[in-house]
Design brief:
Blueprint lengths: L1 H18 L2 H24 L5 H30 L2
Helix pairs in contact: 1-2, 1-3, 2-3
Length: 82
């Protein structure tokens, strides 16, 4: 759930960037980073996870990291025609 909350924050940041509401986009990205950090802490403390759970969680986290770190930069660059 923590990973998906971070993804939602990232998508909101992209949305606000497109609208030009940059302070809201920055707040969304800060929350996305906080959720990503918290997700790692939570994942390490859960001991009942199986190998499949670990693999799925790792892949999901990597996907969300790619979206979180690449998409806002690309959407900002597109808006500013860099």
């Amino acid at each position: 759930m923590c990973s998906l909350a971070g993804l939602v924050c990232t998508l909101l940041a992209i949305y606000f960037t497109v609208l030009g509401v940059y302070y809201a986009a920055m707040i969304g990205m800060i929350w996305a980073v906080a959720f990503d950090w918290g997700d790692g802490l939570i994942a390490r403390r859960i001991t009942e996870r199986t190998g499949n759970d670990r693999n799925f969680g790792g892949q999901l986290d990597s996907l969300i990291d790619i979206v979180a770190m690449e998409s806002p930069g690309h959407s900002s660059a597109e808006l500013w025609k860099i």
